[in-house]
Design goal:
4 helices, disordered N terminus, alpha+beta, 327 residues, 9-stranded antiparallel β-sheet
């Protein structure tokens, strides 16, 4: 046993005092270090892989729809540059008639009252000339509604006094105020959506007139819509909102804003792969009231969650939480 021990010690001393001993020892140490480094690299790679690997997110598409979700196919679209501005419904001043007696007279008979619907030629009142005492009739000049009556029985009128005002309410004006920023952008023919918080359903129209001047007092411009009112739902004096489309920009992929969900501070869209869903970061471009352009992260033709993505976000967070505890 002692003989064997001396042999081992002797061998170690030879290595230690050999000219190549340091080299051998150093190489051995380097080999050991490299081996440790390789193992460390494998460990780091494995840890990195575990950190970046996300648990597969599965959720039944039918169940998602039951929760109010919507699934759509990504496709090209148009982003609208729009602006919402205040407006007011007014009489069409080109369809209003002022009925006057033409010369001094006394009203001897009144046949029309405010609110009556009349036809052109209908008799509104009978008057007697103050000079000749001959009688003549005051007749409506247009089809419309009597919106004002300024006479009573026995009243004397001058030649230029207005006895009645008749308006054709089948068309009205919607005057929209243009702020200085919009004055150079508004053009006739541009689409506009007219709506009011209390009243008729919104209607689509186009700008029929843009005033060449701005108001000296308010410095606002004027855009006007000739609004069809055959059902008499719109009333002069109503305040409205006019949403004017000032420009249109085609885009390769456009999605509703409801499709974009914030996941860890990044805009994300859930993309469908059969019954699984990929939370994919996306790049956003132009946007309008309802839609947004997708610059990167979603290709035309891919299926994605257009609404209800919050359900999948909750499921994703639950899966990540469970995966973290399993590790």
């Amino acid at each position: 046993m002692n003989k064997l021990l001396r042999h081992v010690v002797s061998g170690l001393l030879i290595v230690a005092w050999s000219p190549y001993g340091a080299t051998i020892a150093t190489a051995a140490a380097e080999d050991h270090a490299d081996g440790a480094g390789d193992h460390a690299g494998e460990t780091t790679d494995q840890a990195s892989h575990e950190e970046t690997e996300e648990p597969e997110l599965t959720f039944n598409a039918g169940l998602l729809r039951d929760f109010g979700g919507e699934i759509a196919t990504a496709e090209a679209g148009v982003i609208l540059q729009q602006v919402s501005l205040p407006g007011e419904v007014k009489l069409n001043e080109e369809a209003v008639a002022h009925i006057t007696p033409r010369f001094s007279a006394k009203i001897v008979k009144v046949q029309a009252k405010t609110g009556d619907r009349v036809k052109a030629g209908d008799i509104l009142a009978t008057a007697e000339s103050s000079e000749t005492l001959s009688r003549f009739e005051l007749k409506s000049l247009i089809d419309g509604v009597v919106i004002k009556r300024h006479v009573t029985l026995g009243e004397h009128l001058a030649a230029d006094d207005t006895a009645f005002v008749v308006a054709d309410l089948s068309t009205l004006w919607v005057d929209i105020a243009l702020y200085p920023k919009q004055v150079p952008l508004a053009k006739t023919g541009q689409p506009v959506r007219i709506s009011t918080s209390h009243g008729p359903a919104p209607v689509g129209a186009r700008l029929d007139y843009v005033a060449p001047l701005v108001d000296e007092g308010t410095r606002t411009g004027l855009a006007r819509v000739f609004l069809a009112n055959t059902d008499n739902n719109w009333k002069p004096g109503m305040f409205v909102e006019g949403r004017i489309t000032l420009g249109e920009y085609p885009a390769a992929v456009v999605v509703p804003k409801t499709a974009v969900i914030d996941v860890e501070g990044k805009p994300t869209i859930f993309v469908q792969h059969d019954e699984s869903w990929e939370p994919r970061k996306v790049g956003l471009g132009r946007e309008d009231r309802d839609s947004v352009e997708i610059l990167a992260g979603l290709e035309a033709g891919e299926r994605y969650v257009a609404a209800g993505g919050f359900v999948l976000k909750a499921q994703l967070q639950k899966s990540e939480f469970e995966a973290g505890h399993n590790h």
